[in-house]
Amino acid sequence: MKTNKKNMALTLSLLAGLTASCTAFSKVTPEEAAQLGKNLTCLGAERAGNAAGSIPAFTGEYVDQVPGWNHTLYSGDQPVDPFKDEVPVLVLTSSNYKEHAANLTEGQKVLFEKYPDSYKMNIYAGKRIFGVPDYVCQHAQWNALNAELVNDGMGIKGLGQVPFPIPKSGLELLWNHMLIAGPWTQDITRSNASVLPNGSIGWGKTRLRGLSPANNPNELPVSEGVRAFSWNFTMQPQRDAGVSTVSQDYYDWSKQGRLAWSYNPGTRRVRQLPGFGFDQPMIGTNGTMVVDDDRLFNGSPERYEWKNLGKKEIYIPVNAFRVNSGAVKYSDLLTPSHPDPDYLRFELRRVWVLEANLKAGYRHLYSKRVIYLDEDTWAGTLADNYDARGKIWKHAMMNYFQHPDAKLAISGVQFFYDLSSRQYTAYGLTNEERKGPIMNNLKLTADMYTPDALRASGR
């Protein structure tokens, strides 16, 4: 994608004044920042592979296309797996996973122990071939020397996506995750399947229309006001059909928490949802998810202490075209206990490890969370969540894949495993929908995400 240089110059001029008002703190040095685009990718990943050769060098040559997927822009055609003929270089099972324990998360290890006869991980040769548009690189490179946390990390001052390509603190890692480069508009109809231990399935279904000003290269994505708007229309379960919710997330949680409103077709009324988020149950997931589980974490960081534990080499879900493709049927994918492993793709990647511990005096179902961020994209890929006793309770995984509409990696289906009840939820299935995700061509505006707009939609 070509960058609008006039807009970029104006943006940088405006931000010169913005950063002058920020509280000073330790930033990266000019020498460190100079490595972006050289030894580091423009987003801060190590360009080189690892010494063992099990992680390849980053190339990023594909941005607006995926080899083997003849996609028509904005058509909603379903993803195609360009790697369907590849075979795993390694298969982990309950009999050999301990030999590779250093490259697994605690939740992954529990899955091998819980389901020794059926769970496995297919490990494929790594492919770091997908990149991002120029404007994303330019935003990240500018941010490296200028972006700052404000108000004890509750807010951010910066430009667009990836505020901290060379992160120092846990909160900087978290904001990279929350401000990952993504589409600025999206329209997705997605199903959610809660699979019980006996294989029976409870279904949910929603339509999402999202607007993310932070991602729009044609505007000035300065970190002021609302960074993301969301509208969700519930189609299933039947008892909740017709319920609509709109929400607004801000750049500074200390100034404004999440605003959300819901329309109920039964009462034909709109009501505000105070405190929407955190560990409130997620509709249509049979109790396996809470609101801030989506994308592994979303919302205000206020309840946790966040730690940057550095990097590790972990087997993560990546290049997940197969599990999100239109060739997959839910009846084949959604097997008891866990999804059919042959639809999942894992590669060895360097990840940043982000640990969150519940602050004294605060409440949440999870006392501790550990999130694994892919260094190439800043996408959260895996999470292990712990109960109040400090015992691992839930494991979650996201399945990102490059999409030509967005020209970068987008979130596909997410899996949330309750390791105690032995059920799991597949959240965000689109395989059997008439259309897949459509991004970056919708004419959405902020006034569509208000109580008045919600009220009008129910008439």
Q: What is the chain-wise order of helices and strands?
A: HHEHEHEEHEEEEEEEHHEEEEEEEH
CATH class category label: Mainly Beta
What is the strand tally? Answer: 18
**Tally of contiguous helical segments:** 8
The CATH homologous superfamily name equals Lipoprotein localisation LolA/LolB/LppX
Structure class: alpha+beta
Strand content: 25-35%
Q: Architecture, CATH level 2? A: Clam
Largest sheet: 14 strands, antiparallel
Mean pLDDT: 94
Q: Looking at the structure, what is the overall shape? A: globular
The low-pLDDT segments are: 1-7, 9-14, 16-25
Ends apart, CA distance between termini: 40 Å
Radius of gyration: 21 Å
Looking at the structure, the CATH topology is outer membrane lipoprotein receptor (LolB), chain A
Quaternary organisation: single chain
Overall helicity: 10-25%
Counting structural domains, the number is 1
Topology, element by element:
Blueprint lengths: L4 H16 L9 H4 L56 E3 L13 H9 L6 E3 L10 H13 L1 E3 L4 E3 L12 H9 L6 E11 L5 E11 L14 E11 L7 E7 L8 E6 L4 E4 L31 E14 L3 H4 L5 H4 L12 E13 L9 E7 L5 E7 L5 E12 L4 E11 L4 E7 L8 E2 L11 H7 L2
Antiparallel strand pairs: 1-2, 3-4, 5-6, 5-17, 5-18, 6-7, 7-8, 8-9, 9-10, 11-12, 12-13, 13-14, 14-15, 15-16, 16-17
